[in-house]
Amino acid sequence: MTDKKLNAEYDIVIAGGGLVGGSFALLLDQLARHSDLRVLLLDAAPMAKPDAKNGDTGADFDARSTALSWGSRLIYEQAGFWSALAPGVTAIRDIQVSDRGHFGATRLHSAEVGVEALGYVAENHHLTCVLQQALQDSSRLTVCAPASVEHIQPLSDGAMLTIKGASLDNIRTRLLVLADGGRSGLCRQLGITMQQKHYGQQALICNVAFANDHRGQAFERFTDTGPLAMLPLSDHGVGRERQHRGALVWTLADSDSNQGEGKSDNASCSAERILALPEADFIDTLQQRFGWRLGRITHAGARSLFPLSLTVATEQIRPGIVLLGNVAHTLHPVAGQGLNLALRDARALAELIVNAHQTGENPGSMAVLQAFLAAQSGDQANTIAFSDLTTRLFSNARPTLALGRNLGLLLMDLMPPAKGWFARQAMGMADRKSIRR
Ligand SMILES: Cc1cc2nc3c(=O)[nH]c(=O)nc-3n(C[C@H](O)[C@H](O)[C@H](O)COP(=O)(O)OP(=O)(O)OC[C@H]3O[C@@H](n4cnc5c(N)ncnc54)[C@H](O)[C@@H]3O)c2cc1C
């Protein structure tokens, strides 16, 4: 409910109801359903209108999307809204990894790993609508939007918050969960700094129509201009207007930066130039790099660029305060791991909070928050290193590195354990010992 009367005190206040804060609230809601844990979620933006039921994503051709790992599906099941999300997502049954102009290639099949899909592609509009509908349907959570946290005063046992846009101006909480995104004004206010690394690259995002159906295949292709991912999307249009869609994420060098060590000096493939190409030239350039796996590219939609960087907060916990999602770590979008990692963090934090509440411990105590960091720091470090290293390795055209990665791709196909490891990493299951289904 977005207009529920507020209390002066909560156990948990979540500042930010985006994909991470909202998912975390729903996880808490499910895990704490037999307890009296008081949870308030505030978001500065109004809630989306619920129009995403029965698989109707309401999407246009250019809808933006997110790749959800198999592990994220399990988390959404735990949070109780996978069944509402499922009708509008596209299953990834097969991932093909290849290197343009080289011999290495590998395929990962869902059947080999014993799951129905390696992951899913969800249109952001659909994901947001389903999430926000579930938040509004919850009778235990208090959701207040639009309302923002304006000021944080740390206390010995929590924090006092100044709120704008709600029926109360001041609210006390035992734990403040900061989920206010990558440009967090609240972190700046607390003096929490960020370490940032720029890759000198940009991700070009665009939906593309192909002559052939993708049949649930996702493609990761390493090219002279950088890695290129094509994710399977649902068809757009009906009858003779029907188009088979793929979601392209293409990493390209900044127009004004070097192309990278050992890279072909192909200035015509810089992000700005590719963005500015007329549609027919863009399709030709893309077809050369992607190849003919899905037949002719018949249409390319609106293109946009996202600068690639890695941003990590220097502190994730303080007494009574914890950072979650993009505010804690904003990853290179090409690896498709940002939300997936944040959901694993969210699950670990929610489980620890509910346990603490059951035993009468303050959920904002350093003991609980340190346990959260201990549980997640390995997964965070591995995921960050995995996306950072693969980006640097695969966007470099030096012959020795090209040979190394080609042997790697080849060996992965010949050696099932290595392939299994890669699959688990891509599926967001690397932190769990077995696939529990
Ligand atoms: C191009 C691109 C492609 C990506 N693809 C993938 C992918 O395939 N797979 C994947 O796992 N990840 C992907 N990601 C990453 C993923 O999108 C992010 O990890 C995720 O959206 C982060 O969500 P968040 O809730 O932390 O932040 P946000 O979505 O920024 O949400 C922050 C929320 O906080 C609210 N807010 C801000 N300030 C306040 C305040 N003071 N008080 C209250 N509320 C406040 C805002 O209104 C907003 O709703 C991609 C990212 C990009 C850029």
TrEMBL record:
NCBIfam families to which the protein is assigned, alphabetical: PRK05732.1, Ubi-OHases
UniProt-recorded Gene Ontology molecular function terms: 2-octaprenyl-6-methoxyphenol hydroxylase activity; FAD binding
Cofactor(s) the protein requires to work: FAD
Domain of life: Bacteria
PANTHER family for this protein: 2-OCTAPRENYL-6-METHOXYPHENOL HYDROXYLASE, UBIQUINONE BIOSYNTHESIS MONOOXYGENASE COQ6, MITOCHONDRIAL
Keywords assigned: FAD, Flavoprotein, Membrane, Monooxygenase, Oxidoreductase, Transmembrane, Transmembrane helix
Pathway: Cofactor biosynthesis; ubiquinone biosynthesis
Recorded family membership: Belongs to the UbiH/COQ6 family.
One biological process term in Gene Ontology: ubiquinone biosynthetic process
Protein name: FAD-binding domain-containing protein
InterPro entries linked: FAD-bd, FAD/NAD-bd_sf, UbiH/COQ6, UbiH/COQ6_monooxygenase
